[in-house]
């Protein structure tokens, strides 16, 4: 926590020097005590790199709110304080972290790097909020994209700021539908709720939009436990598949793509997360024009506001390996800060009521939290991997020399999907 304390002091100092927060605001924020946000994420273990990337993004968003004086409430302004809880990538550890966070006074929980963990936390938070109204907790989800979380398992206390797996698949299908050279596909994913959902939706959407495409492979592998993907890569190459669809993330994606390169596979990869966390560097020149990724935003999205946003993140985190930036996480923290101010309270139900239906904008990007299921509605972007400096690629990722050229921008109105949620409100 010493690093966090120094970071908060530095933020206030910067705000004062820039004239962003009057002294009285900083004093009242300090006197009132911070609003604690609990990040429950795998910060060690096989997906630690993904957890640390999340932490950098949310820390930057918190710093930005604090730099303008914090969150304005009737009793004065209050700073946001981000606290880290390491789930070690294990559900039981995540539940233990949740209990600790609540005992420590956090009333907002942030998590996303596992839909299985999100489901476990969601159930625990629902039970906590039913049994202990004085310590109700909000759950802000930035990456757990199993569609069930805002459909049959939707909860008043849960808000998802990422597009769910079906929405992302529909965006990728915009490209696959027009790529008539692709006649055969291999489906591969992680064996848990999200990975299963991706493959299920790939089969459904392919049947509807590209019935001429043959699925020549369809398999799941253990989550975070495969160290050598060579056997999988050999099967992909031997299948004759012209392309691969995968929802893999973290090291499971990096190692898969690296193995494919090493066995000489030359097909395309349609991915959810192929745009960073080591994947571009792992595949190298073999991925040029072949690795496709879908995201809520990419660094090479055209426009001065988008460019300034990315450049400011790089100034805050100048190390190239740390430049995996998520627009949606910035929008999430902004939406939370605005909801607290509108509610005039940090009480979970009051803040949730203001998050419902809220619209938030930042650096030319915007989105609206749909009240019916708490699924954030935003545009999606599809990019293809190319060399830094090629047309449309001003910025690379992680100093790899490779970036993603924007080839599709899908507006929120087209990315939106129906929901089966039947929201139960307190």
Q: Which class do the helix and strand fractions yield?
A: alpha/beta
CATH class of the largest domain: Alpha Beta
Q: Major sheet, described briefly?
A: 7 strands, mixed
Radius of gyration: 21 Å
Number of H/I helices: 14
Total strand segments? 17
The separation of the N and C termini measures: 35 Å
CATH level-two architecture of the largest domain: 3-Layer(aba) Sandwich
Shape: globular
Mean pLDDT: 92
Order of strands across the main sheet:
9-8-10-11-12-16-17
Uncertain stretches of 5 or more adjacent residues: 1-30
Q: What is the CATH H-level superfamily of the largest domain? A: Response regulator
Fraction of residues in H or I helices = 40-55%
Look up the CATH topology of the largest domain. Answer: Rossmann fold
- Our count of domains comes out at 2
Strand content: 15-25%
Walk me through what this model shows.
This protein is α/β, with parallel strands linked by helices and 426 residues long. It has 2 domains: 2-163 and 304-378, Rossmann fold (3-Layer(aba) Sandwich); 166-295 and 379-415, Response regulator (Rossmann fold), CATH 3.40.50.2300. 42% of the residues lie in helices and 21% in strands. It contains 14 helices and 17 strands. The chain has helices at 2-18, 23-32, 48-67, 91-103, 115-131, 165-178, 193-209, 230-239, 251-262, 279-283, 304-316, 327-343, 348-355, 412-415; strands at 35-41, 71-73, 76-78, 80-86, 108-111, 138-141, 158-160, 184-190, 214-221, 243-246, 268-271, 291-295, 359-362, 365-369, 376-378, 380-387, 402-410. It has a 7-stranded mixed beta sheet with strand order 9-8-10-11-12-16-17, with helices on both faces. Strands 4-1-5-6-7 form a 5-stranded parallel beta sheet, with helices on both faces. It has a 3-stranded antiparallel beta sheet with strand order 13-14-15. The longest helix has 20 residues, at 48-67. The protein is globular and about 65 Å long. The protein starts with a helix and ends in an 11-residue tail after the last helix.
């Amino acid at each position: 926590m010493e690093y966090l304390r120094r970071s908060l002091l530095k933020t206030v100092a910067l705000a004062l020097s820039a004239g962003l927060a009057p002294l009285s605001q900083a004093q009242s924020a300090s006197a009132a005590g911070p609003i604690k946000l609990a990040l429950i994420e795998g910060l060690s273990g096989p997906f630690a790199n993904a957890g640390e990337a999340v932490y950098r993004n949310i820390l930057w968003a918190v710093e930005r709110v604090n730099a303008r004086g914090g969150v304005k409430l009737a009793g004065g302004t209050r700073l946001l304080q981000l606290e880290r809880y390491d789930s070690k990538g294990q559900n039981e550890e995540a539940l233990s972290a949740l209990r600790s966070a609540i005992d420590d006074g956090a009333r907002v929980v942030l998590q996303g790097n596992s839909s299985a963990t999100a489901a476990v936390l969601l159930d625990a938070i629902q039970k906590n909020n039913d049994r202990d109204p004085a310590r109700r907790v909000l759950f802000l989800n930035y990456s757990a994209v199993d569609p069930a979380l805002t459909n049959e398992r939707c909860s008043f206390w849960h808000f998802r700021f990422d597009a769910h797996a079906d929405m992302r698949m529909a965006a990728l299908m915009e490209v696959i539908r027009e790529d008539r050279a692709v006649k055969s596909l291999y489906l591969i994913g992680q064996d848990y709720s999200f990975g299963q959902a991706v493959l299920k939706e790939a089969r459904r959407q392919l049947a509807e939009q590209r019935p001429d495409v043959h699925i020549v492979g369809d398999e799941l592998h253990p989550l975070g436990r495969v160290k050598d993907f060579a056997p999988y890569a050999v099967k992909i190459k031997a299948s004759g598949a012209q392309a691969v669809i995968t929802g893999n993330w973290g090291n499971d994606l990096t190692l898969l793509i690296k193995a494919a390169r090493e066995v000489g596979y030359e097909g395309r990869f349609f991915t959810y997360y192929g745009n960073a966390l080591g994947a571009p560097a792992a595949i190298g020149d073999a991925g040029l024009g072949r690795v496709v990724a879908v995201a809520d935003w990419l660094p090479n999205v055209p426009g001065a506001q988008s460019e300034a946003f990315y450049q400011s993140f790089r100034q805050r985190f100048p190390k190239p390996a740390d430049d995996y930036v998520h627009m949606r996480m910035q929008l999430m923290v902004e939406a939370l800060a605005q909801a607290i101010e509108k509610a005039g309270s940090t009480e979970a139900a009051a803040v949730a009521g203001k998050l419902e239906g809220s619209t938030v904008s930042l650096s030319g990007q915007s989105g609206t939290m749909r009240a019916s299921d708490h699924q954030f509605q935003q545009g999606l972007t599809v990019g293809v991997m190319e060399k830094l400096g090629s047309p449309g690629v001003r910025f690379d990722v992680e100093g790899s020399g490779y970036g993603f050229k924007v080839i599709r921008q899908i507006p929120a109105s087209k990315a939106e999907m129906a929901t089966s949620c039947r929201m139960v409100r307190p």
